UniProtKB/TrEMBL annotation:
WD repeats: 18-59, 66-107, 157-199, 207-241
Name of the protein described by the UniProt record: WD40 repeat-like protein
Top-rank taxon, per record: Eukaryota
Keyword Repeat: yes
Keyword vocabulary terms for this entry: Repeat, WD repeat
Keyword Repeat: yes
């Protein structure tokens, strides 16, 4: 008789190891279509892998070339259409790469190292969060929003005043919201102008994460008080706890 229980995989026996990096892995990201996995490492490379075979598809040597990072890579992010990979580094820059050719497309001088980055749904904006342990004048934990243009130019649209825990884009890509460890407010920002357009008080003990529902009709928040709450983004009213 078959057992009703399922065996638990041995985490020490990986399904498919990816062998190639010579330094610690600092970031990992699936491509939007799920066909590739991108990994970043302290060995100054970003590698793309086939998740089905474990074979390396592409390697971006981000420092050993005329263009590229001069510090450790701290974050990677695919653009929504999968045509670009963004990398953030301790060298205070973000660089955009073509994952097919491995060529650098664009470089953004962020002036301070970033530990996190995220594309807007349209791919026309890129938000970065400044890392801790940076110079004393650095806006640690602040969001910087960059407008990405087809001609390779970029524009810094805003730097938030509050220390940000998390950032989430509206499904339409025209606005985004941030939560802060400084207070219990969730702020809404206009991605085109960089202006704050709304501030709602979301009761909870230090909101640490926020997420929109796919249709944009609900916001979920997680807090240090061990709760997850659902909110109406139009009224700011709590719907469920």
């Amino acid at each position: 008789m078959p057992s009703d229980t399922h065996s638990t995989p041995d985490v020490d026996d990986p399904l498919r190891p990816f062998v190639g990096h010579t330094g610690k892995i600092t970031a990992i990201e699936y491509s939007p279509d799920g066909r590739l996995i991108a990994t970043a490492s302290e060995d100054a490379t970003v590698r793309l892998w086939d998740p089905l075979t474990g074979q390396q598809f592409q390697k971006l040597d981000t420092t050993y070339r005329a263009e590229g990072h001069t510090g450790k890579i701290t974050a990677i992010e695919y653009s929504p259409d999968g045509r670009l990979i963004a990398t953030a580094s301790e060298d205070a820059s973000v660089r955009l790469w073509d994952p097919q050719t491995g060529q650098q497309i664009q470089m953004i001088e962020t002036h301070w190292p970033a530990h996190s980055l995220t594309f807007s749904p349209s791919g026309l904006h890129l938000a970065t969060i400044c890392a801790e342990g940076t110079p004393t004048d650095a806006p640690v934990g602040k969001v910087m929003l960059w407008g990405i243009k087809e001609d390779g130019e970029e524009k810094r649209l805003l730097t938030t005043r509050n220390t940000v825990h998390s950032i989430e884009w509206f499904p339409d890509g025209h606005r985004f919201i941030t939560s802060s460890k400084d207070d219990d407010y969730i702020r809404t920002w206009d991605a085109e102008t960089g202006e704050q357009v709304r501030k709602d008080l979301f009761r909870g003990d230090n909101i640490t994460a926020i997420e929109y529902s796919p249709d944009g009709r609900l916001i979920a928040t997680a807090s240090l008080d061990d709760t997850v709450r659902l909110w109406d983004p139009v009224t700011g009213q709590a719907l469920q706890k």
